[in-house]
Specification:
Elements: H1 36-40, E1 45-52, E2 55-60, E3 65-72, H2 79-92, E4 97-99, E5 104-109, H3 115-124, E6 140-141, H4 155-165, H5 167-171, E7 181-184, E8 196-202, E9 207-208, H6 210-216, H7 219-225, E10 231-236, E11 239-244, E12 262-263, E13 270-276, H8 280-292, H9 296-333, H10 341-370, H11 382-405
Parallel strand pairs: 6-7, 7-8
Antiparallel strand pairs: 1-2, 2-3, 3-5, 4-5, 8-13, 9-12, 10-11
Helix pairs in contact: 2-3, 8-9, 9-10, 10-11
């Protein structure tokens, strides 16, 4: 009887490594673009420092190190510039780059000796290295005339002029703190959040050419475009047209693209505005409250309550900052620098805030109680006149306090 040898079983298949599941929405998976050192030590960093402006040095708990070299680039780049940046990455770095939210490019390298030649090559090609620590970072800005349909100006031109003047402040770390700037083509301010914003601000409602509206504009689309419902259909000189409720209009310019006869740009009404920290409250929030709320009393009450909260925030911050800053100076430099400019400015801001909160505001509350209704009272009402004078004084005092403190 013959014996049969059983067939050898096939070798077990090795399980394929689990793949990250693709996400059909949102940003692409960044893992595939990370430098190998960053990928191996993701979320496992021990510390980081800055050997020089524009260079970040990260050390992981495993002992591996990586250097990131940051260079300033324009937001709108041609193919030639992009290829040049990529060639530099391939020749002098490890081929890995990323762009920051402020349009700077960062090169990641795993060896310290790569940093010097990379910096020299970037600066020789016209890309300054900096933007870290207490410097002026690259200005975030809107696309302007490239594709926006409501720009009052081209933000790119404003950025070029500003960064030409701030070139050295980008390369050095000599500012009192990190400074973020943004520019926008209109006061919708989609250029991004910043400490200082340079924008175009319209100050008057649009001027309507009623002879052209019916031939050029799709009136329902224009009415729907207004964010504050200030536009409505109208019949002017027997022709279908539009009209603007100027008590609601916030002069944003959103109506101009779908209806060019609603011209809002003008030499006397379109200005370059600078918003500094808390001053945005006076430029946007306060006027909007008076435009949108049903009565001036409600708007005034809202603005007054918000101002009171801002006052107390400023007072508490100043009281904490002044002694802390002086103690820090004493421990690190041997002297408190009591009369340093930053301390003097904070003291002036504190004094103006105290005057507004405890001097002007109580008197305004008393005067407001004497006016039965701001919507129905006459303009020559003595209490109303005094109230408005003190209101303007309060805005001046608070705005100057914001400028001094950089809020």
């Amino acid at each position: 009887m013959s014996q049969t040898t059983p067939a050898a079983s096939p070798p077990a298949k090795t399980a394929a490594p689990a793949q990250r599941r693709a996400i059909e929405s949102g940003v692409p998976d960044n893992q595939q673009y990370l430098h190998p050192v960053l990928k191996r030590n993701y979320g496992n960093w021990k510390y980081h420092d800055r050997p020089r402006p524009g260079v970040l040095h990260h050390v992981s708990h495993s002992g591996e190190e990586v250097w990131s070299v940051r260079a300033g680039t324009q937001r709108q780049m041609d193919v030639y510039t992009i290829r040049k940046l990529c060639d530099i990455a391939d020749q002098f770095a490890d081929g890995y780059v990323r762009f920051t939210i402020r349009s700077n490019i960062e090169y990641m390298v795993a060896r310290q000796e790569q940093v010097g030649p990379l910096i020299a090559t970037l600066e020789a090609a016209g890309f300054p290295v900096g933007g870290t620590g207490n410097s002026v970072s690259m200005i975030a800005h809107t696309q302007g005339w490239l594709h926006c349909d409501i720009p009052g100006t081209d933000a790119s031109g404003v950025v070029k002029a500003l960064m030409d003047e701030l070139y050295d402040e980008f390369r050095r770390e000599e500012m009192p703190n990190r400074v973020h700037l943004s520019t926008s083509c209109c006061e919708i301010n989609c250029g991004g959040q910043a400490d200082i914003a340079i924008i175009v601000q319209h100050t008057k409602p649009p001027k309507i050419n009623h002879d052209l509206v019916a031939n050029v504009c799709e009136r329902p689309a224009v009415v729907a475009r207004c964010p504050v419902a200030a536009i409505r259909p109208a019949l002017v000189n027997g022709k279908p047209s539009l009209e603007v409720d100027e008590s609601k209009c916030v002069c944003c310019g959103a109506c101009y693209p779908p209806c060019p006869p609603m011209q809002i740009n003008g030499a006397d009404s379109t200005k370059i505005a600078v918003w500094v920290g808390g001053i945005i409250f006076f430029a946007i929030m306060a006027p909007t409250a008076f435009h949108q709320l049903p009565t001036r009393l409600m708007a005034g009450t809202l603005v007054g309550n918000l101002l009171t909260k801002l006052h107390w925030i400023a007072i508490v911050c100043a009281i904490i900052y002044l002694p802390s800053s002086m103690l820090y100076n004493r421990f690190t430099g041997g002297t408190a620098h009591v009369f340093a400019m930053r301390h003097v400015l904070i003291c002036l801001m504190l004094a103006l805030t105290l005057v507004s909160q405890f001097g002007i505001t109580p008197r305004m509350i008393t005067l407001r109680a004497q006016v039965a209704s701001f919507d129905s009272s006459t303009l020559d009402n003595p209490a109303r006149i005094q109230f408005e004078v003190r209101g303007e004084a309060s805005l001046e005092v608070d705005a100057n306090g914001d400028l001094l403190a950089g809020r």
